[in-house]
Amino acid sequence: MPAEIRLFPCLSDNYGVLIHDSETGATASIDAPEAAPIEAALGATGWKLTDILVTHHHHDHTGGIRALKEKHKCRVVAPAEKTARIPAVDETVREGDKVSVGTLSANVIETPGHTLDHIAYWFHADKLAFVGDTLFSIGCGRVIEGTPEMMWHSLVKLRDLPNDTEIYCGHEYTAANIRFARTIEPNNPVLAAREAQVARLIAEGEPTIPVTIGDERLANPFLRADLPEVAGIISMDGEPPEQIFAEIRARKNSFK
Ligand SMILES: [Zn+2]
Question: The whole model's pTM is what?
């Protein structure tokens, strides 16, 4: 049986997401931005929370853990990295570990850069990846604890997932990301098409995710830092991709 997904807004611009195994009834919350919308999603679906899979330690991804754990006695899985500082953890995981949610199975991919502890959960049989604040649609997370080089290598790991992998990220930032991306690749037709699609989704009150890795590869400038045409546009021909990535990230940081 395929995994079932429930996506819903939390806090000001975070996403909550539940993944449900209909065979066993197991249900995981990916991160726990706040308890109330997660409880509401559980109530609406009738699913019982068995696990919380944490991507990184930021409060807007962990603030609901204690209340949910107290009520549901669920297992909390979190990064093993020592900087994680996450409450109520039952099990820590690192690169190459597998995490089961009922009969569903995720591979852990370490993606440091935004934070040092950041991990993604890749449910390869279900063609799903939960990437937290490492990769956003048409964007990426700020490099807060790691280095641009570290972040670039993390993004390449996610880019290397199969093209039909559906990506769920931690925030709804897509429209703002597109406005910036158009300054890097104004003539990218895939990006222009994505802009029109996102405007329509937002007007309809719909989320702009999930997106596939294949689509992101063609339009997300942060995944395209090693393409000669991108280097050329920002006048960095021949520079190493991590430096081109660092320049694009720096431009995004000061973009209004
Ligand atoms: Zn974060």
Answer: 0.97
